[in-house]
UniProtKB/TrEMBL annotation, chains A, B, C, D:
The keyword Isomerase applies. GO terms for molecular function: L-rhamnose isomerase activity; metal ion binding. SUPFAM superfamilies: Xylose isomerase-like (SSF51658). The lineage of its organism: Bacteria, Bacillati, Actinomycetota, Actinomycetes, Actinomycetales. This is Rhai grampos: l-rhamnose isomerase. Residues 63-256 form the Xylose isomerase-like TIM barrel domain.
Length: 396, 396, 396, 396
């Protein structure tokens, strides 16, 4: 039981350094309207184009200091001049992160994209990815991120096996088009929007395809994409062990939807995940794992939602860095079940918010990013300025 | 083990009569476009107004003979002249069934409808139901069906308890406005679109409110609205025992979505459900249980999807009617686990399609409704005629 | 964001009083060996009879100060002289709590107990409960707690409906035998050990039977007895609203087993549950809700496991008492989703261990119960003294 | 819609041949008593040693004709003279199949076996497998089957990563000891008996270890070992595509227990699984996939339970062989969702029991194996003869 609230100086030099250099990529689509199949509710002041989305990303980074990159989604974030977009971002301290393809919102993809038995449509889906690779070059993006809505709704609708084979062929062609310094990361998802089967439902399937492609193909783990009861930190540990965790998408869910604020449903799980990441040394900037948020805010305000998400990840990380690993290892080897568990839980139960406030102040930031942002007047500003035009929405 | 395929004459008089008089209500919204939060794909020839929806309902009834009623959804199916709509339906052998309210697609209902702490919004939601009751009078509808999207996305967002109290108050006012020959049926749903909690998540909650309201308030059980692993036939048996099963919504799902064709995911479960209904005598027309489809067709054709759904329910029913109840009771009392199970499974394994073909022919219908419909040319007709105007969609 | 670690004086008088008077009943069976169907591993020093179990209960109470009652399980805890057992307990500051019946470990109950179609067996099961009521009188126990393993493994094995009716009859006879100051509490469980259906699977079923019995019949909610994704705090709120939450069994589980240390799997859920209890005023000693642990320790030491469980509940309670309810109510009414959630989460993120250490010291207890117990030498003592005889085991 | 009940001659030559040569391995442990953590109920006449277990296996094969192999479990089935056991089996037309190791019922394995951080225990667990390999040689068993109960109950109890590494080391040593004609098959299980994490929880983990070991290491898929909602036939298709499906364990479950009669919970799922197997050509005797039952009978009679299981698999197989693959492929390529689904469902809805009766008669067997066995008097015989001695039980 910790006697008191820890301060920054209670951390080791290494831990402090990891906390200072931690970074989380933001999704451009988190700033537009989003919703469910029942209704997309609107929010005043949402961006109307990719430039305004980047402005909002920069706001989150301005107050948290940990979100210096933005993921783009193509075609939602297509612009005429990517150089201009890149410069717009960099002027505000933000770089372009992953490029996300989208092959699920075109009438042609009703029955699949990279897995479609219709060769014209499959060709179109591959070509879309080649276009994304061009945009990667134009924006300096390091990785192509692929999540597929492909799957079927009814048994027999299509051949599971044939779809796997077509998927492998499609991915091979896309992978071959990458430059040597570009990566491909493949996301899996247990369910939705396909109802009966999805073509990349689990980490095993994603891994199998990545192994077939090559070293620069890695798995994306998204917190919300698992069956109930799945031990996600186990998968993190396994993929890190195999050197194939390419990206980690933060969000959370209670049952079926995966777009709540990270840590909102199960903060202890988030801590356990960060604990695996920290214990495997994967938090370091050069670990090759791209940490990002992938969530949408339906009811809550967008920018505050992203700020809270970033600080939630920071808090879980700080707790994971506080775990007494030597004592833990000793208790584990002694087979002292309760003592080992207690060491982990002790760190989790610690209130790290003062420590993080200290960290921010040491970096010239306000100690409480949410408060500082809400007081900044930015929300009022965009609500009054962003009038007219088409509000960006999930899928736009 | 049955030696051969059973024919209609193998059924008892009572069973044959039940099969002949079975009826399933169709939802008007099954005939428009629908989809997921990712994309609503379009289908050629979908209706553009409630009249055309009823035309399609009538088609399903024409070929299956078991779908003589249609559920309307307000405001989606609002018309100027309900008398005309009613006549349009009746001219084609269809009557208006339940009226479904909709308090989830208006900006005001972002944080709830009948449970909203904002009195203006809660008033508006109640008034919408009073309007629905007027439409019931105009259309001769026997029951007001309420499903609420109400709930919260985050712990603490609102008071669970206070919302229950407001829900009870709202329902009491609505119930009081009903005529003596009108019923209120309250649907529960485990999750979605609310992410953290839903205000009527389970049959217990729905029952608690119905008990508080009075005898004409009953529970709606929707196949797709339960947690994984829930034994739905148990709930059917329990609600029938209590005399509070008001309606049964057929559909199916594999994991999180609930709008697949009934029986498509787990036909054995559908049989077990029908077995409880048959064994409790609840299939009879005067049992007070309204059987209906509540599903949407995203990828498949709408009218064929409804035809297949209706025949799936018929097949499960015919199998349930074939169960040798005397032998079953005997094996159960003898504690012969395998023998009792075998008696049930024997009926399930029987191919009842020839028997149902025979039934249809005895009623002057084609033996294979799907084949007859597909050959009728109706799909070509609506694809060419229903051009221009706004295609009806889920939510429209 | 709390600026610092709260102390006891930061609590309101009422909150402080509630924390001081909080009590948690311990199960006698938590102190014996337990395991899974694969293996029951042994632990040195486990009790060999009910007297030694009570000695261990007293140890937990000695160090935590919050576990002054013990639940007995009949026949596991049958003794010749209940007066002597009662005195043995009271001499150590412990009283006898609920009496738990056991109708699942006799060959006769293979196919059911209170629901069995065999009248001799059903009679035997009822009589067992009447015997339990006698033991209640002898021990001063206030409530009879019934959990049934009844159910079936295969569809058709028995009639779901007939079993409900027999259950109702059996319970009525048992309830009628209670004295006016005795209660009956009925526990539900989603699954296990029955594989296909359980006869009391959900709170709705338990409530339906309690309503039929009378005012002194109430529902037992056990944390581990729900389908995945179930919002347990909702059920707590609903049962409290109805005045029918009779007991709350603490434990936790990740997927299918329900006997882990409370708070071990999802501490945030435990906090949310305690938050509903606190906000409904149900923590007060006279609230009529019996809080107890119902868990077994398979791998970890028994007494330390119970100590950790008790302190986990205390911590969740203290956090719930720290919630700023006025600010929460205001944010909820304002529809400020993030702010409302933040108020709840702020309390959860607070480290209340120092506050609880302060509380214990104010009561003359050691600040860290686990440390104090481990240093007391009691474990060594029982390991050397409790040799020979039959170690108590789960089910013994 | 099939016009009539198909007969054997409606099958293609190849399909008929596959059905005739289909074989399913039986587990020796299915014939002893088994139960849950709550109670193991007894059954009269269960075997008292491995010889009597094989007698019962031979009975199932005598009546079904499809179960000519038996899996042994070591140490449960240890005998002094394996040559004698082998001969005892072969005299009755049964051969020894896989050898199953058991490293979960010894006190030493409380915290793990092949993953244990205690080197002495890990050594002991490895040695146990080497002994199993010796028994394989003595019995002519083709494969060593490993299922591990290893895992942890609490976060932090042990290092997930270190356990994976130790597992890899242990498996490498075991694999190296195999003869060139011996295989190692590694089973995964989502949960139980470990509560927090299992060391081989999913097919991905099993595959990763098999890939590291070599070509003769393959994955075992057990129907009951998945999270709710998992699409098992997808995994079958994927593992067959990779050439790494080593064995398929049949059983079924509704929620958490995995030892019900195969097909008892979801016969349509069983059909879909067999459909993937048939469509991939993996039913052929030389496919390298070992099909077996892995289930225990708690309430029902053992031998009849195994007979029903075998016929359930046969029925699902016959239905899968009836699928019109050409029409299916055409409908799939045409994107006709409903038609494709209908082709699959049409085969499923067909009653294949007469066809299988015909098959049996053509092989000199009784048309109804269950009836023939129950009339044979064998049950009475063993009930009267197998008195005294220790009844075999699950775990014995």
């Amino acid at each position: 039981m910790t006697a008191s609230v820890p301060s920054l100086s209670d951390l080791s030099d290494e831990a402090r350094s990891l906390l200072k250099t931690q970074s989380i990529e933001l999704p451009s689509w988190a700033f537009g309207n989003s919703g469910t199949r029942f209704r997309v509710f609107t929010t005043a002041g949402v961006p109307r184009d990719p430039y305004e989305k980047i402005d909002d990303v920069a706001q989150v980074n301005k107050y948290t200091g940990v979100t210096p990159r933005v993921s783009l989604h193509i075609p939602w974030d297509k612009v005429d001049d990517y150089e201009a977009l890149r410069k717009h971002a960099e002027d505000q301290g933000v770089t372009i992160g992953n490029i996300n393809s989208n092959v699920f919102q075109d009438e042609d993809y009703k029955l699949g994209s990279l897995t479609n038995s219709n060769e014209r449509i499959r060709r179109k889906a591959i070509d879309h990815h080649l276009e994304c690779i061009d945009i990667m070059r134009a924006t300096g993006s390091p990785a192509l991120k692929i999540w597929l809505a492909d799957g079927t709704n009814y048994p027999g609708q299509d051949s599971i096996r044939a779809r796997q084979d077509r998927l492998a062929d499609s991915l091979a062609e896309i992978y071959a088009a990458l430059d040597d310094d570009q990566e491909l990361v493949l996301e899996y998802k247990f369910f939705e929007p396909a109802f009966y089967h999805t073509d990349v439902p689990d980490w095993g399937t994603s891994l199998v395809h990545c192994l077939a492609l090559g070293d620069r193909a890695k798995v994306v783990l998204d917190t919300g994409h698992h069956a109930p009861g799945t031990n996600i930190e186990f998968i993190v540990a396994q993929l890190l062990r195999l050197g194939r965790l390419g990206a980690f998408d933060f969000n959370s869910r209670f049952y079926a939807d995966d777009d709540l604020i990270v840590g909102a449903a199960d903060p202890y799980q988030l801590f356990r995940i960060m604990n695996e990441i920290v214990s495997a040394g994967a938090l370091a900037p050069d670990s090759g794992v791209n940490f990002m948020l992938d969530q949408c805010h339906n009811l809550e305000e967008k920018i505050p939602g992203e700020i809270r998400s970033a600080t939630n990840v920071q808090e879980a990380t700080a707790k994971a860095l506080l775990v007494d690993r030597e004592a833990l290892d000793q208790a584990q080897r002694a087979g002292d079940v309760l003592a080992a568990n207690d060491i982990l839980v002790d760190a989790y139960n610690t209130d790290v918010r003062p420590l993080l406030a200290e960290l921010r102040e040491s970096q010239g930031l306000a100690p409480d990013p949410m408060k500082a942002f809400l007081e900044s007047g930015y929300l009022d500003k965009i609500r009054s300025e962003r009038v007219g035009g088409t509000a960006a929405g999930w899928g736009a």
